Amino acid sequence: MFLIACKSLLPFSAIAIGIYSFQFMNLFFKMIFSYIFITIVTFTLSIQVIMYMRTLHLTPNNHWVYNISLPIEILFLMSAAYFYLKNTFLQHLSIIALVLFSAVYLSEMFFKNIMSYLNYTDSFKSLLIVVVFCIILYKEFIVLKTFWFCSPVICVSLGLIIYSGCSLPYISLFSYFESNASEKYNLLFRLLNIIPANIMYILFSISFWLIRYDALLKPKYVPKQ
C-alpha cells in the first residue's frame, strides 16, 4: 500500500519541481515534463473511470484510457529524443520509432478493440524507449565533463530505461497474469511496475532540480585575468 501511495504522489512531486524549474528547461526537458503530465492525467482518469463504473454496478474496465494515452506518451518521449539527438541519422531514429510504433498500434487495434488493453503495443513502446534512451545515455556519457549523477539528461534517461525495461516482461505477459491473478501476481506487479515507477519519478524530480541548480546556483568558472 505504501508503494502504491508513493506511485500516486511522486509524479505530483516531479510536476511541482518541474513547474519551479520550467523557465530554465530546453525542449528536451519540456517534452519530458509533458510526458509526466500525461501520465498523471491518465492515472487520475483511469481511477475515476473505475469508480464511476462501480457506482453503475458494471465490470470495471479502464483499458481504453491507457490505450488512448499510449501514442501521446510515445509522441512526447520521441519528440524529446528528436530535440536531444542533433546528429542527422540519430535524430531521424526517433521518427522511425514513431512510424514503427504507429504500425504496431494500428495493427493491434484492428485485431482487438479500444476496450481491450493493447499490451503488445505497450511492450513495443517500452522496448523503443529503452533503445532510444540508451542511445541518449551513451551520447551524454561521451560529452559529459562532470559526475554522471549531476547530469539531468542522465537522470531522466536512467529513469525511463529502468521503468520501461522492468515493466516490459510484466506488460508482455499481462493477459496471462490477468487470468491467473494471485499473490505472486501482486508481488510481481509491485516489483516490476510500482517500484521502478517510483524510482523513475524520483529521478525526474532530481533532474528538474538539477536544471534549476545549474541555471542559478551552480558556481560559474571565472578565468584568471
Structural notes for this entry:
- By secondary structure, this protein is mainly α.
- 81% of the residues lie in helices and 0% in strands.
- The chain has one domain (2-214).
- The protein contains eight helices and no strands.
- α1 (2-21) runs parallel beside α8, α2 packs antiparallel against α3 and α4 (88-111) packs antiparallel against α5 (119-143).
- The N and C termini lie far apart (59 Å).
- Residues 220-225 have low confidence and may be disordered.
Structural class: mainly alpha
Discrete helix count: 8
Overall strand count = 0
Helical fraction: over 70%
Radius of gyration, CA atoms, in whole angstroms: 19 Å
Overall shape: it is: globular
> Which consecutive residue ranges, at least 5 long each, have pLDDT under 50?
220-225
Total domain modules: 1
- How much is the average pLDDT? 85
Distance between the termini: 59 Å
Strand content: under 5%
Question: The biggest beta sheet, please?
Answer: none
Instruction: Give the SSE order as H and E letters.
Output: HHHHHHHH
Considering the chains and any ligands shown, give keywords for the structure.
225 residues, mainly alpha, 8 helices, 0% strand, globular, disordered C terminus
Topology:
Blueprint: H1 2-21, H2 27-55, H3 63-84, H4 88-111, H5 119-143, H6 152-172, H7 174-179, H8 183-217
The gist of it:
With 225 residues, this protein is mainly α. Helix content is 81%, strand content 0%.
